[in-house]
Amino acid sequence: MRVLVVEDHEELAETVAAGLRREGMAVDVALDGHAALERATVNGYDVVVLDRDLPGLHGDRVCRVLAEGGSRARVLMLTASGTVAERVAGLGMGADDYLPKPFAFTELVARVRALGRRAQPALPPVLVRGDLRLDPARRTATRGGRGLPLSPKEFAVLELLMAAGGAVVSAEELLERAWDEAADPFTRTVKVTVSRLRRKLGDPPLIETVAQAGYRV
To answer: How far lies 178's CA from each of 23, 26, 34, 88, 175, in Å?
Structure first.
């Protein structure tokens, strides 16, 4: 899942981003509204965690531009004010969910995951392909009942491949949705990750390479 955290308090932004990365998400950070819109134009985010009270370009304006521009990203709006009127106003701007500050990080993660599921076609809570089972909520993967010790990136790649339902997923899409903007698009990182994933999944092979197209399970 690709997430953009928009928060002008740099320390808080980096803390939230680091926590979401530990949950296996690819996270970029923007410290103001203008930077947020620039990143959202270039990258395909699943969820935008948006502080409402941004200086300069207000969070309300960012949310409205994203909504009116047809962005598929779901917006979780954060604010220090948790009144009903504030929540109604935020949702009216196009936000998909609302979380008042201060918040419990576990709740933030749960809401981001829920919005991420809504950003994609409806999927079952547990992805199954033959004897391979992947539970995104519990962050567990098993094959033939055997637990798979996957790294966060390996888990993210496998989740994207299984969610595609047998369709081919290009290396470019895997790189965009499983890594953040710091990833070098010219590296072999996707190929290396898929290779490690294949070894951990074992035999018979489950991940097929489709020449000049990508990968599929």
So the answer is: 12, 5, 24, 33, 6
Element housing 187 (H / E): none
- What whole-number percentage of the chain has pLDDT above 90? 55
Measured from the Cβ of residue 212, the count of other Cβ atoms closer than 10 Å reads 6
- Report the chain's mean pLDDT, rounded to a whole number: 88
Coil/strand/helix, residue 169: strand
- Which of the residues in the chain have pLDDT under 70? 81-93, 119-123, 185-186
User: Using the 8-state DSSP alphabet, how is residue 135 labeled?
Assistant: E
Q: Virtual CA dihedral for 122, 156, 177, 71, nearest 10 degrees?
A: 30
**What is d(CA 152, CA 202) in angstroms, rounded to the nearest whole number?**
18
**What does DSSP assign to residue 207?**
P
Structural domains of the chain sorted by starting position, each given as residue range(s) with its CATH number in brackets = 2-118 (3.40.50.2300), 127-216 (1.10.10.10)
Q: Which of 106, 11, 89 is nearest to 98 (CA)?
A: 89
